[in-house]
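ingest -> validate -> predict -> emit
validate: passed (alphabet ok, no gaps, 451 aa)
predict: started
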Amino acid sequence: MNYQQAIEYIIDRDGYERGFVANPFSGDEVAALGLKRTAGLLERLGRPDRQFRIAHVAGTKGKGSTCAMIAAIARAGGQKTGLYATPHLHSFRERIMLDDAPISEADFARVAGEVAVANERLLAERPELGEPTAFEIVTAMALLAFAKSDVDLAVVEVGLGGRLDATNVVTPDVAAVSSISLDHTAILGGTLSEIAYEKGGIIKPGVPVVVSLQGAEVLAALLEIAAERGSPFSVAGRDWNTEGESDGAHLSGPWGDWREVQLSLAGRHQVENAGLALMVFWLLHPELMRDEALVRGALSSVSWPGRFELAAREPDIYVDGAHNVDSIARLMETLEGIARDRTLSVIFGAARDKDLAGMLREIARLDGTLIATASHNPRAVDAEALVELARDASLAAHPTADIDEALALARSLSSPGGVVCVTGSLYVVAEARESLGLAETPAFERALLYR
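emit:
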């Protein structure tokens, strides 16, 4: 199996409109088969997930950035890391990071071939489980790749929810839950406590869990789960504290009282994510946390493309994958400080299952121009539909056919020193980065993804 064949093998098993997860509307009983299938694959691969330490991270927003920070601290301390995070921006290989680089095409094909053989055995021995989804296949591939690379620490980001997510087959050394808000409500539940129950499903008996700042309803739900499972519970605001901005954060906890910490990831919310990452790593390796300079250096050099990333100059073009109401609100808070007395254009494209009206209301809080667009993802909402919703939010908007047209319009509307922000989904962010010349998606991957 070569790399292209490996990609075809995965995409042939995609689901939920190219979202690469099992159909979340099929009910718990069907969804739970995914955990059995993933565990079955790993058993036939020799349980590679038991050969290294694991930090397992769930949450609505910030979990990817938190994962990147944990991995960066570990690498700075001399550890070999694996990072499994979704979705990718440009290539499937980005989902499986070995240290700070995507897995090679050759190694990707190699582990895909081994998982394919394991899948044939699983289907023959347990046909009642059905065919694994793309996400289940890639989860097994990632864990196998980490074992083959002899990583010291694997940082595993939950794909969707937590309780029934394919990654929940692992037994981590530490579990972490980043900020929880309303998202995927048709799948995870319409209340914060229901969503917390799903996210808190990654809490394992006796395994420490670290939780970022949460509302009372979410915190109560997570505390209840941890208490039932006898899991030591650490929470922001009690066991550690964060203050300030990313250009001078105050991070205090069992590691010490660190002031004026410089974070490479911008935004006040990244200060909260940094605190969560530090607490996770304190539980994993407190001895490494005694080297304050080492950890500061790691936090100042974290790279996480597509998360309030300055992608171009004149005008300043930022790309950020905010994709729900709360994350858009935080993005607008960050932009407010940057775009003061400067023209602002927001290029917005999102999936049709999101709270589009709520996101547009947050954007309308700033005095700017909205440019509606759509990525090529099948779940993307049409730009004209976004314009209609924007009118309901008293927000003037311009429809565009694609990201290239949107960027061209934003540049034409921007005054010298202006600010442009591309947001709404990681898919539209990925296309913007490619349009700006920062990356390129292999042609066959794009053709297969959108066929």
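Residues 66 and 273 are 5 Å apart (CA to CA).
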